[in-house]
Inverse folding.
């Protein structure tokens, strides 16, 4: 509340604040890959079904073979898509409409469309 009252007490400035360019207003030619680290969560639903089957059958794996296979196929499909995505990123292949680009793909785009000086 103190911040809001302090802002309201100042009122609107009569003169606009002049813009001061401290750094040049242009993009860097490359992007670092520091922020690409993310937790990889997959097949949570299949794992919960498998664990509930284990709990119902007192952890007897032979009675839950269908659930185990569902979990294994889900994980295999996830790893295959992850491997394909990593191969595309390494080659710098851009997929139209993809919303999350890796730093390598962004660098390819920045090389295609450099800053005009």
């Amino acid at each position: 509340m103190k911040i809001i009252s302090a802002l309201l007490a100042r009122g609107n400035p009569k003169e606009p604040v002049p813009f001061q360019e401290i750094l040049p207003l242009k993009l860097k030619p490359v992007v670092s890959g520091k922020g690409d680290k993310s937790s990889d969560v997959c097949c949570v639903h299949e794992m919960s079904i498998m664990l509930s089957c284990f709990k119902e059958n007192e952890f007897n794996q032979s009675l839950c073979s269908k659930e185990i296979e569902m979990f294994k196929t889900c994980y295999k499909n996830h790893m295959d898509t992850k491997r394909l995505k990593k191969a595309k990123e390494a080659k710098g292949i851009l997929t139209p409409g993809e919303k999350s680009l890796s730093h390598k793909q962004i660098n390819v785009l920045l090389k295609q469309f450099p800053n005009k000086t």
Observations:
- The longest helix spans residues 65-91.
